Amino acid sequence: MATIKKKVLIHWWVGEGFIDSPNSDGKTAEETGNDYFKNFIKNGIIEPVQQKLRQNSENCEMHPSIRAAIIKLAEKNEFASFDSKGNPNADFSSCPRVCLVKTEEGSSLHNLTYIYHYLPREEIETLFNVNEPYLSFRVDRFSKMKKLKVLQLGRWKASAKQLVEVENTEFLKGLKKMKELRYFSLRGISGITELPNSICKLSNLRILNLSGCDNLEKLPDGIGSLKQLTHLDMSECFLISHMPKGLASLLALQILKGFVIGKESPIGLYCKLADLARLQHLRKLSIHVDRTRPEAEEELNSLPQFRKLQSLSVAWSSIYNAATSTTTNVGLAKFQRIVSRENSLKTLAKIHRLFSRKKSMPTTPGSTSQPVDLHKLGLQYFHGSEMPDWLRRLNLKNLKKLYIRGGKLSDLPLPGNQVDRSWAVECLRLKSLSKLEMEWPKLRELFPKLNYVEKVDCPQLSSFPCDDNGEGIWNAADTEQA
Question: Which of 9, 21, 115, 464 has the fewest CB within 10 Å, making it most exposed?
Answer without folding.
Answer: 115
